[in-house]
Write a structure and sequence with these properties.
The complex is a heterodimer of chains A (108) and B (117). Chain A is 0% helix and 45% strand. Chain A is built from no helices and ten strands. Chain A starts with a strand and ends with a strand. In chain B, strands 2, 4, 5, 6, 9, 10 and 11 form a seven-stranded mixed β-sheet that branches. Chain B has a four-stranded antiparallel β-sheet with strand order 1-3-8-7, with no helix packed on it. In chain B, β7 and β8 (78-83) form a beta hairpin. The N and C termini of chain B lie far apart (40 Å). At the A-B interface, β4, β8 and β9 of A face β5 and β10 of B.
């Protein structure tokens, strides 16, 4: 399968913890990377290689993986974390890449 | 500072062609695989194409294979996407992105392609 499945929308209270999940067969072979996209802006890489953060990404962002599911966790969500989040990996063939459909995170 | 700057977008009629460019600076362009990713208005990210660092290997999403051609000029630090036989469903913002081997670590600001009569 070449699909990655994400919940379309998730909400979290300010300061609370939220987990965004991504499911797909290819995740049994490849780690997901995670991207944050705010309106009118280009995506930004926030997690790669299961649980690594590029420089400049707050440590409240973390990743995990088990079986065919990868997760992005935001511990102590801030108002500025409200955005669309996308997972990405190679597909099962390894020759193409695929994005999940995206999760719109609302911080209440 | 790594910079990726796309250009070449615009309005084109169905069946027409367009060539996008992505000018890279701030890093050794020839060391990196590069990708094109697109996003239709109000929709999610969709991977389009990839090219290896030396340009020897290219891959395409099924939706564009046979119509789009990715290429690069390492001497000019520039990535290209030649788009032919354009359709309304190709309307999107097109981003170029650098492949760090573990994810797309830098993105351009995007260029809008509108296919309409």
């Amino acid at each position: 399968s070449s699909e990655l499945t994400q919940d379309p929308a998730v909400s979290v209270a300010l300061g609370q913890t939220v987990r965004i999940t991504c499911q797909g067969d290819s995740l049994r072979s490849y780690y997901a990377s995670w991207y944050q996209q705010k309106p009118g802006q280009a995506p930004v890489l926030v997690i790669y290689d299961k649980n690594n953060r590029p420089s400049g990404i707050p440590d409240r962002f973390s990743g995990s993986s088990s079986g065919n599911t990868s997760s992005l966790t935001i511990t102590g969500a801030q108002a500025e974390d409200e955005a669309d989040y996308y997972c990405n990996s190679r597909d099962s063939s390894g020759n193409h890449w695929v994005f999940g459909g995206g999760t719109k995170l609302t911080v209440l | 500072e790594v910079q990726l700057v796309e250009s070449g977008g615009g309005l084109v009629q169905p069946g027409g062609s367009l060539r996008l460019s992505c000018a890279a600076s701030g890093f050794t362009f020839s060391n990196y695989w590069m990708h094109w990713v697109r996003q239709a208005p109000g929709k999610g990210l969709v991977w389009v194409s990839c090219i290896t660092s030396d340009g020897s290997t290219t891959t395409y999403a099924d939706s564009v294979k046979g119509r789009f051609t990715i290429s690069r000029d390492n001497a000019k630090h520039t990535l290209y996407l030649q788009m032919n036989s354009l359709r309304a469903e190709d309307t999107a913002v097109y981003y170029c992105a650098r492949d760090a081997g573990v994810g797309f670590d830098h993105w351009g600001q995007g260029t809008l392609v509108t296919v309409s009569s």
